[in-house]
Design brief:
By secondary structure, the protein is of the alpha/beta class. The chain has a domain at 92-109 and 232-432: Rossmann fold. It is built from 20 helices and 15 strands. The longest helix has 19 residues, at 113-131. The protein is globular and about 60 Å long. It starts with a strand and ends with a helix. 48% of the residues are buried. Bound molecules: pyridoxal-5'-phosphate. Residues 111, 113, 144, 222, 255-261, 312-313, 395, 418-419 line the site of pyridoxal-5'-phosphate. The site of pyridoxal-5'-phosphate has 16 residues, from helix 12.
């Protein structure tokens, strides 16, 4: 299997080459040259497999530069009941008639990002050992990504994590999750500033090519193909649980920010999984909803990006969206470049409303969208508690609202649960007047000793800290 860049770079790469890379050299995103097709006989065979074996089968179609026995061992070690809480790994349950919740948030940090990040940690350790190399991961987080990365990389050989976060701006629970880690290879850096300052620092350090090479700086952001690939697996697992045979269509609703999660659904559908509709759920930061309604993709300025009660979906542009648009325009790299380099670069938007390709977004590709507000989230959380005695987090609530709007009787609608409510306790308290229950392993974490350094919003200070801590 070879990988290409959405922006037309002539090089082709194998999986392990792009595993440790971010963007392609021309600024594009990596995609497989073609999506492997899964036939009815294969689907029938996969239906009976435990999650780790299903993951191995799907990953094998995209990874041909890791010996199968090794890849199988990596999957088996990653997707265990011990790490994810149940044998099903992603158990599905029916909420109301035909509407299901797929639990993706029972991993170490209680958000769906663990599903991919735990695999990435094991793939990184394997590949770095094979190369005799080291990697220093530099990241910026406002919560979920940073903790998922740290719990995936803690104690891994050959990897260090330097995670910047805005000082005092994460929830106390999120801070405690990250800062209580005492592993030597994990470095928490609280930046005096906001999340954008953290992102600017990561960009500045990555743009210093000399420093980047000398200290082997890498990232784990959501454009990483391996993360996306890991997420494809739970669409198959959700499909099998929602149906009794492989001729039945199923729809999915996905709380979306950077379009990584739902893009994995697009890949699963492109492989032949019978997905009828993919519903993109957004909050007030509705760049994606706007595109699917109008054909206009208009990135927002920082000042127009709202701070909402589903903060992991607070994005100004959706970094994985380029992958889908590449497929939408028939994999025409010149056309893609015009949209993402020329139009976005010059005017901050592109307009496909008059392009026949836009009709295919809802048509051939099955996309729909929805949008929620803070009031919608509170109402959904209350209603779901009252009618089904089930607590959902604010992101999953955004999903549920959009799912109900798009649900077609007779076609199961699976909502991806992207976090557990305890991570966003303040909004649950606002909706219900009470704190959600906390899993046992997180009792009292706010009182644990914290391992964190405070630095000014200055790339040079962060570079100096990395240099000091690299031997
Ligand atoms: C990251 C995240 C999202 C958004 O996922 P994308 O892949 O960026 O679309 C939604 N909900 C939660 C809880 C998250 O952590």
């Amino acid at each position: 299997m070879n990988y290409l860049s959405t922006r037309g770079h002539p090089d082709r790469k194998r999986f392990c080459e792009i595993l440790l890379e971010g963007l392609a050299p021309d600024g594009g995103l990596y995609l497989p040259e073609a999506y492997p097709q899964v036939d009815a006989a294969t689907l029938a065979k996969w239906r009976k497999l435990p999650y780790a074996e299903l993951a191995f089968e799907i990953l094998s179609l995209y990874i041909d530069d890791i010996p199968p026995a090794d890849l199988k061992a990596i999957c088996a070690k990653t997707y265990t009941a011990e790490v994810f809480g149940t044998d099903e790994i992603v158990p599905l349950r029916e909420l109301e008639d035909g509407v299901y919740l797929e639990a993706l948030s029972n991993g170490p940090t209680l958000a769906f990002k663990d599903m991919a990040m735990q695999l990435l940690g094991n793939l990184f350790e394997y590949e770095l050992a094979r190369r005799g190399a080291e990697l220093n991961i530099l990241g910026a987080t406002s919560g979920d990504t940073g903790s998922a990365a740290e719990y995936a990389m803690r104690g891994k050989k050959g990897v260090r994590v330097f995670m910047t976060s805005p000082d005092g701006r994460m929830s106390p629970f999120q801070q405690a999750q990250m800062f209580s880690l005492q592993d030597e290879n994990i470095h928490n850096i609280a930046i005096t500033g906001v999340f954008d300052d953290c992102q600017d620092i990561v960009k500045a350090v990555s743009n210093d090519l000399g420093f980047k090479r000398k200290y082997r700086i890498g990232t784990v952001n959501s454009i990483n193909w391996a993360r996306l690939l890991a997420q494809v697996v739970y669409y198959f697992a959700g499909y099998f649980q929602a149906t009794a045979s492989n001729d039945k269509p199923v729809s999915f609703t996905v709380p979306s920010g950077n379009f990584g999660n739902v893009c994995a659904g697009h890949v699963a559908r492109s492989m032949g999984l019978p997905i009828q509709t993919l519903v993109v759920a957004t909050n007030e930061n509705d760049v994606l909803d706007e595109f699917f309604r109008t054909g206009v993709y208009r990135v927002r300025a920082a000042v127009d990006t709202h701070e909402t009660s589903s903060p992991s979906m607070d994005i100004s542009k959706a970094s994985n969206f380029e992958r889908f648009v590449f497929d939408l325009v028939g994999r025409d790299a010149a056309k893609l470049r015009k949209l993402f380099v020329d139009d976005l670069g010059l005017q901050g938007s592109f307009d496909l409303s008059a392009d026949p390709a836009f009709k295919q977004a809802a048509g051939r590709f099955g996309f729909r969208s929805g949008r929620s507000t803070h009031a919608d989230r509170l109402a959904t959380i209350r209603d779901t508690d009252k009618r089904f005695a089930t607590l959902v987090d604010p992101h999953t609530a955004d999903g549920l609202k959009a799912a109900r709007e798009q649900h077609v009787p007779g076609v199961p609608m699976v909502v991806l649960e992207t976090a557990l409510p305890i991570k966003f306790a303040a909004t649950l308290v606002e909706a219900l007047g009470a704190e959600p229950a906390r899993p046992k392993k997180f009792e009292g974490i706010e009182a644990l000793p914290k391992r964190v350094v405070k630095l000014p919003a200055d790339a040079e200070a962060v570079k100096a800290y990395i240099a000091e801590n690299c031997d």
